[in-house]
C-alpha cells in the first residue's frame, strides 16, 4: 500500500516534467545543485574527520544537524506548495488506517529529493566518528532518528499550517512574517549573539556556546549522541538518546492527532466580511479603464502578499547597508537608489500575477495604453512615496541633508525609468508565478532558472536607460552636492517621466497587438 | 430598421483552431440571429469553449472570422467587446475583491458613468441573490456564487450579445430560475444570448435555437424544433453524437 502511494508520487512528478521541457531543465539544474552540495558536504566531512579535533567534529555535527531539523520545520511554512501532491486529506477517501496513512506520508517525505539528500548527509556524517568505532556504530541509528525527527516534524508543521489554511489570511500573514524574519536573519542573529555575550566573544566562541546547549534540545539531541560517546561519556549519550526518542514520540503523537483531525474534519474556509457598500479604492478612482486598473493594481499592492513581498526590500536594503557600512557609508547613502531598482522591477511580469483572471481584462477590450497606465499608476502610488521617504530618512540619518536632491533625483529617476521599462516588458513576459492565494514564496519548479535570467536582462535595460541620471548623481557624489543636486533632480524627473510615457505608449501598442496571445501563454503555464 | 434586423447578433465563419497537432475546432460556421436564445451543446472536448473564446476575442483563430452585430471581432476588438457580455468557463476572477467591488470594477472597465454604476451593481446583487455576500471576497465564495458574480459582471454594461459558457453549472435551482427569467426578459427586449450547456432539458426549455457540435464540427444547427425533429433533444443529441452504451455495467459492479 505504502509502495503504491510512493510510486504514484513519482509517476506524477515524471508526468509533469515530461509535459514541460523548461520545468525539466529547471529540475535538472536543481538536482545538479543538490548533488553539488552533497559532494562538497561529503568532502568537508571527510577532511574534518581526518584533520579535525573531536570538539570541531562535535560542533559541526550538532550545529549542522540542528540547522537541518530547523530547515525541515520552516520549509512547509515558507513553501506551502512544497509537496502537496500527497497529503493526509488526499488519502482520506481510501480505506487506510491512520498508521498506514502516516507511513505513506513519512515515506513520501523520506523518498523525496530533500529526504534522500538529508538521509545521505546524515549517514555520511557518521564518517566523522570513524576514529571512535563505538561512536560510529551508535551514530548510524542516532542519525536515522535525526532524519525521522526531520520528516515527522516537517509533516506535523505542514499539517498544522494546512489546518490553518482554513484561515487564508492567517496563513498569508504567517508567510509574510516568516519571510521578513528570514531576510533579516543576518542582522537579527548578530544582534542576538551580541546581546548574549555582550559583543565580546568571537564567532567561534559563539558557535561553541550554541553547540554546548543544543544537544539538550529536541533540535540537537540526536546529533549529540555520537560526540558524547566519542568523548567517552556513556551516560551523557544515553540521556541524549532519551531526549531524541522522546522528541520523536511526542512529534509522532501530535502528528497522528493532526492527521486524524484533517482526515475527519477538513478545515473550513473562514471568510472575511466587509460591510456591503464599502468599495474601497473602487469608489474613489475615476471610472474608465485607467481608473479601474489603477484601483485594482493599487489594491493588489496593498493587500496581495505576492506584491507585498516586493515591498519588503524597502526597509531591508537601508538596514542591511547600515549594518555593513554604517550610516556614513556609501552603501547606505546609495540604498534609496537600490530600493528604487528593486521596486521598479516589481511589475516586470505584472500580467502573470493576474493569472487567468487576465481574461476578464481582455474581455473588456481595454486599450493597451489605458491598461499600462493604470498598472503604472497603481505601482507608483505606493512606490514614489516610499522612495521619497527612504531618501529623506537616509539623508537625515546620515546627517547630510544637503545630499537630498541628489539622492532623490537618482532614485526617482531610476524608479520612473523602471516603471517605463516594466510597462513594456509586462506586455511581453509571462513568468510562472505563485497563484493568487498560494504562498508568495512558493517557487514553481523551473521558474527560477528562466525568469531569473529575464530579470537580469530587464535590470540591465533599466540600468542603461538611467545612465544619464546615475552619471550625474555619481559626479555630484564625488564633487559635492552643491550645484549637482538640483541638476540630478531635474534630469532624473525628465528622463524618468520621459521613459514612463514612452513605456506606456510602446507597451500599450504591444498589449493591443498581442493581448490574446498573452492569455494563451498564461493558460498554458504550469499551475502546480 | 429591417436591415438592422437582418444583421445576425453573432456570425462565425470557417473558424479553425489547432492546439499542437490536435484540431480543437475544425471549421465552424454558425449564425445567431438577433434576439435569439441560442444553445450550444456537445460532448466534453467538442470545442465549445474554444469556439466561444474565438467568438469573443480571447483566442485568435488559425483561420476564419467572427462578427458581432456586423463588427469584425478580430479587426476591431475594442468595438466588438463593448457590445459583448462574456462569461468564460474555467478562468479565475480577480478573487481578492469583494463581490461588490468586482462588479464595480467591471463596470468601471467599460467606462460606465459613475452615477450609473452603484444602482446597477445593487440591482445585480439582488438579481443574483448575492446581497448577503456583497462584502465577502470572491475567493471565499462557493462555486455557484462565483458563477453568479461572474454572470453579474457579464451583464453590468448592458451588452447586446451575451456569451455564456456553462452559466448554470453548480448554481442552485432557485437562483437558476431567477436568472432564467431575467435572460428571457432580456431576449424579449431584443438582446441575444448564446449559451453552452450540458443540460439538454434546460436548452430544450429555454432556447429557441440550438447547435450540436462534436469534434470541432457542427453536426446540426437551427431552431430547437428543427434540430430535435420530433424527439426529445436528449435523444436526438445521443443519436447525432453517438457513443451511447446499452449494457447494464460490468458484472463485478452488480450487487446481486
From TrEMBL, chain B:
Against SUPFAM superfamilies, the record matches this protein to: P-loop containing nucleoside triphosphate hydrolases
Query: Sorted alphabetically, which InterPro entries does this protein's record hold?
Result: AAA+_ATPase, ABC_transporter-like_ATP-bd, ABC_transporter_ATP-binding, P-loop_NTPase
Record-annotated membrane-spanning stretches: none
Query: What keywords are annotated for this sequence in UniProt?
Result: Antibiotic resistance, ATP-binding, Nucleotide-binding, Transport
Segments forming domain ABC transporter: 10-240
Which molecular function terms from Gene Ontology are attached?
Answer: ATP binding
The entry's localization annotation reads: Cell membrane
Q: What is its main location?
A: membrane
Q: How does it sit in the membrane?
A: Peripheral membrane protein
Q: Which SMART domains match?
A: AAA (SM00382)
Task: Check the record and name the Pfam families matching this protein.
Answer: ABC_tran
| Protein name, per record | ABC transporter ATP-binding protein
Organism (species) = Microbacterium aquilitoris
At the highest ranks, the source species' classification is: Bacteria, Bacillati, Actinomycetota, Actinomycetes, Micrococcales
Amino acid at each position: 500500500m505504502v509502495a503504491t502511494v510512493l510510486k504514484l508520487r513519482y509517476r506524477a512528478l515524471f508526468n509533469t516534467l515530461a509535459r514541460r521541457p523548461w520545468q525539466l531543465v529547471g529540475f535538472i539544474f536543481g538536482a545538479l545543485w543538490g548533488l553539488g552540495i552533497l559532494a562538497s558536504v561529503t568532502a568537508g566531512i571527510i577532511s574534518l574527520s581526518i584533520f579535525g579535533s573531536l570538539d570541531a567534529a562535535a560542533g559541526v555535527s550538532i550545529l549542522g544537524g540542528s540547522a537541518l531539523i530547523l530547515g525541515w520545520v520552516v520549509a512547509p511554512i515558507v513553501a506551502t506548495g512544497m509537496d502537496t501532491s500527497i497529503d493526509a486529506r488526499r488519502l482520506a477517501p481510501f480505506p487506510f488506517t491512520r498508521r498506514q496513512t502516516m507511513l505513506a506520508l513519512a515515506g513520501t517525505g523520506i523518498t523525496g529529493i530533500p529526504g534522500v539528500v538529508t538521509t545521505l548527509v546524515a549517514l555520511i556524517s557518521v564518517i566523522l566518528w570513524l576514529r571512535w568505532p563505538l561512536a560510529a556504530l551508535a551514530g548510524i541509528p542516532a542519525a536515522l532518528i535525526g532524519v525521522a525527527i526531520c520528516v515527522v516534524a516537517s509533516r506535523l508543521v505542514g499539517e498544522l499550517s494546512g489546518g490553518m489554511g482554513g484561515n487564508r489570511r492567517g496563513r498569508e500573514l504567517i508567510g509574510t512574517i516568516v519571510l521578513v524574519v528570514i531576510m533579516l536573519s543576518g542582522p537579527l542573529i548578530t544582534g542576538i549573539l551580541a546581546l548574549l555575550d555582550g559583543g565580546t566573544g568571537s564567532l567561534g566562541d559563539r558557535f561553541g556556546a550554541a553547540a554546548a546547549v543544543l544537544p539538550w534540545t529536541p533540535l540537537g539531541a540526536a546529533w549529540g549522541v555520537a560526540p558524547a560517546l566519542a568523548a567517552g561519556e556513556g551516560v551523557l549519550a544515553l540521556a541524549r538518546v532519551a531526549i531524541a526518542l522522546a522528541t520523536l514520540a511526542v512529534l509522532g503523537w501530535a502528528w497522528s492527532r493532526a492527521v486524524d483531525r484533517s482526515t475527519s474534519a477538513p478545515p473550513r474556509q473562514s471568510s472575511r466580511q466587509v460591510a456591503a457598500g464599502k468599495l474601497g479604492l473602487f469608489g474613489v478612482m475615476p471610472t474608465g479603464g485607467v481608473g479601474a486598473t489603477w484601483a485594482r493594481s493599487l489594491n493588489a499592492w496593498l493587500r496581495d502578499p505576492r506584491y507585498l513581498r516586493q515591498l519588503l526590500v524597502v526597509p531591508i536594503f537601508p538596514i542591511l547597508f547600515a549594518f555593513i557600512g554604517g550610516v556614513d557609508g556609501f552603501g547606505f547613502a546609495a540604498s534609496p537608489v537600490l530600493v528604487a531598482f528593486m521596486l521598479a522591477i516589481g511589475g516586470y511580469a505584472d500580467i502573470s500575477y493576474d493569472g487567468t483572471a487576465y481574461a476578464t481584462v481582455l474581455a473588456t477590450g481595454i486599450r493597451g495604453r489605458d491598461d499600462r497606465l493604470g498598472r503604472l499608476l497603481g505601482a507608483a502610488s505606493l512606490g514614489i512615496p516610499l522612495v521619497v521617504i527612504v531618501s529623506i530618512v537616509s539623508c537625515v540619518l546620515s546627517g547630510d541633508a544637503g545630499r537630498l536632491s541628489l539622492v532623490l533625483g537618482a532614485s526617482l529617476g531610476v524608479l520612473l525609468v523602471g516603471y517605463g521599462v516594466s510597462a513594456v516588458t509586462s506586455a511581453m513576459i509571462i513568468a510562472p508565478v505563485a497563484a493568487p492565494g498560494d504562498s508568495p514564496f512558493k517557487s514553481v519548479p523551473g521558474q527560477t532558472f528562466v525568469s531569473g535570467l529575464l530579470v537580469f536582462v530587464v535590470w540591465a535595460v533599466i540600468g542603461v536607460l538611467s545612465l544619464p541620471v546615475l552619471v550625474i548623481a555619481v559626479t555630484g557624489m564625488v564633487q559635492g552636492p552643491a550645484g549637482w543636486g538640483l541638476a540630478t533632480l531635474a534630469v532624473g524627473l525628465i528622463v524618468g517621466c520621459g521613459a514612463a510615457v514612452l513605456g506606456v505608449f510602446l507597451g500599450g501598442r504591444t498589449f493591443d497587438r498581442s493581448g490574446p496571445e498573452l492569455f494563451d501563454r498564461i493558460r498554458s503555464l504550469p499551475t502546480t | 430598421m429591417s436591415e438592422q434586423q437582418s444583421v445576425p447578433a453573432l456570425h462565425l465563419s470557417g473558424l479553425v483552431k489547432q492546439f499542437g497537432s490536435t484540431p480543437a475546432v475544425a471549421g465552424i460556421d454558425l449564425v445567431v440571429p438577433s434576439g435569439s436564445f441560442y444553445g450550444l451543446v456537445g460532448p466534453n472536448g467538442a470545442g465549445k469553449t474554444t469556439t466561444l473564446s474565438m467568438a469573443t476575442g480571447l483566442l485568435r483563430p488559425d483561420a476564419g472570422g467572427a462578427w458581432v452585430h456586423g463588427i469584425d471581432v478580430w479587426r476591431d476588438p475594442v468595438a466588438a467587446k463593448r457590445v459583448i457580455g462574456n462569461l468564460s468557463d474555467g478562468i479565475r476572477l480577480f478573487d481578492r475583491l469583494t463581490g461588490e467591488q468586482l462588479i464595480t470594477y467591471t463596470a468601471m472597465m467599460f467606462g460606465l458613468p459613475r452615477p450609473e454604476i452603484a444602482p446597477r451593481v445593487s440591482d445585480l446583487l439582488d438579481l443574483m441573490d448575492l446581497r448577503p455576500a456583497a462584502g465577502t471576497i470572491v475567493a471565499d465564495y462557493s462555486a455557484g456564487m462565483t458563477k453568479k458574480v461572474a454572470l453579474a459582471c457579464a451583464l453590468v454594461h448592458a451588452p447586446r450579445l451575451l456569451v455564456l459558457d456553462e452559466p448554470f453549472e453548480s448554481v442552485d435551482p432557485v437562483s437558476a430560475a431567477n436568472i432564467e427569467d431575467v435572460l428571457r426578459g432580456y431576449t424579449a427586449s431584443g438582446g441575444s444570448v448564446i449559451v453552452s450547456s450540458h443540460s439538454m432539458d434546460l436548452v430544450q426549455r429555454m432556447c429557441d435555437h440550438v447547435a450540436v457540435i462534436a469534434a470541432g464540427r457542427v453536426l446540426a444547427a437551427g431552431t430547437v424544433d428543427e434540430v430535435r425533429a420530433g424527439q426529445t433533444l436528449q435523444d436526438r443529441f445521443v443519436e447525432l453524437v453517438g457513443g451511447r452504451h446499452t449494457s447494464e455495467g460490468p458484472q463485478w459492479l452488480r450487487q446481486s
